[in-house]
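Minimal example, chain plus iron/sulfur cluster.
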Amino acid sequence: MSCKKFCLSLFKYERIPSVEVQIGELPLGGNNPIRIQSMTTTDTNDTQASVAQCKSIIEAGADLVRLTTQGQREAENLKNIIADLRNEGYTAPIVADVHFNPAAAMTAAHYADKVRINPGNFTGEAKRFNVDADKISDEEWYGILREKLSPLVDICRQNETSIRIGVNHGSLSDRIMARFGDTAQGMVASCTEYLDVFESLNFTDIVISIKSSNTRVMVQTVRLLAATMLERGHFYPLHLGVTEAGSDAEGRIKSAAGIGALLIDGIGDTIRVSLTEAPEAEVPVAQQLVDYITSKATHATIESVSDDSYSPYEYRRRESKAVLNIGGNNQIAVIADATARKKPERFDADIVFCNDNYADGKPVITDNCDADSLHLISARQLIEKGSANDVFVLIQTANIDSELITVLQKSNVVIIAKPETTNPTAELRAFILKLNANNISAPVIPWLRYDDKDLATFQLKAAADAGLLLIDGLIDGLMLSNFSLPEKDVVDTTFSIMQATRSRFNKAEFISCPGCGRTLYDLQKTAATIKEKFGHLRGLKIGIMGCIVNGIGEMADADYGYVGAGRDKISLYRGKELVSRSLSEEDAIEKLEEIIRKDGLWRECK
Ligand code: SF4
């Protein structure tokens, strides 16, 4: 690979063999299955409720359960929760989610199987050390880290407790922000500083995560971390997740697109699908995603090609030329496949691919099935013609040979790329890189075909397959086929995948946290109301966060934020600026509309 290597192969599903870490009775990483986890939403001081929810999560199939452990009381109560679970025969590892409280981490490390800390805030703000964090030397900084982490390491060693270094986009330390800004490099550095210190203390029972609600940021950053660990020669198990993914189809699609894009390259040892729903609902979604990706292990061989034009660490849309208003600077196209429909319907798709309007007996692509059809020809027909302009060419990606390359170089066509293996993502990536290597800048639209009758299953598979291609800016449109489902569902799914990968917005974006023991209001109900009321505001990003402690940072790039600040006390934010406080849940929704109207961003729902 010409750029820093982040996976074993771009063209073959092959899991990176991380170093195995023992979490309680559960081995994680190495050759072990990809583990599934979820997190409770109960108050960790409420033993009965927390035990009941842990049991529900475990019974749903989770391998690990995490609990909010923000303070000493919660950390102490882990002892009771774990004792009750073990007495009832539940052996799944219990993880304490601490974030920033060293004292709570040290207490929790006596009882939990793993403790999660956040390097963005664990050592506190610079002022707590009475030093200017961005100005102190590396030596001094590492001294501070050693001082903070050594006692925790001692307790973890004595109790065989592992540690997760959990970096979150939006909660980076002042020092990292001053040095790197809000970048992938910053997030990786935030993690490696801690790794350096843990390794200097000879402590390696470590799992790492870097999460973001932005799928592009999340994928690029985890790749950079993977590349860094491959270079360092010690690959710690990776925990993957898209934070604040939301609920329902959006949450599932966003998670499948982001997590799927990494799993497909063999990255990831444990995953959490964060949904603003009951935590046990996350488990089957995560398992289905893992099963789908790992089922690709036996895919047919995909020819390796030059990766010189590949940009895995920053978004760079492929430089295609515009043909038929597709490619170039045109927005990513949504194409509906209505070839097997009796009557193609007119949904929002840019183009409908249908059979009702034949030209010489060949299927055609028609622009919303109007009379002026756009022609689709086969690769063979293109070769016979010698060149062509302003047509769609259907190419089976594995069949691109020198003859076809020569005519494509002389043509102005849109390629409908049809993969054949069970790993369409890698196959299409190879195909597009081959086009690039041969100076072919034709726009490419993958044609991905499914026959799942269950909408959620189809959405998860399509998002997992197409996510990487959109996140990497490789494609100019997407055509999904599933004749077992209504055309509208298929088209809506295509739009949702584009939204999830920030490729094209057709509705508001909701960054809504899954809730946890810190949540201060009825998150699920409120998120549903906000989605209903503001969903039509295309392109607007609204954060819906359960608590103020982590919420502000974690909603990262939201335009507006609805944040729990106390029991039934909501604060509203414009970006990171507090604009209204101490509102009741209902008043806050009204006020949010008022603010958006005042900002001139309101549109009436059609
Ligand atoms: S934002 Fe607060 S309430 Fe929501 S999951 Fe994060 S810590 Fe929990």
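Residues 513-516, 518-519, 545-547, 550-551, 554 surround iron/sulfur cluster (CB under 6 Å). Residues 138-159 form the longest helix (22 residues).
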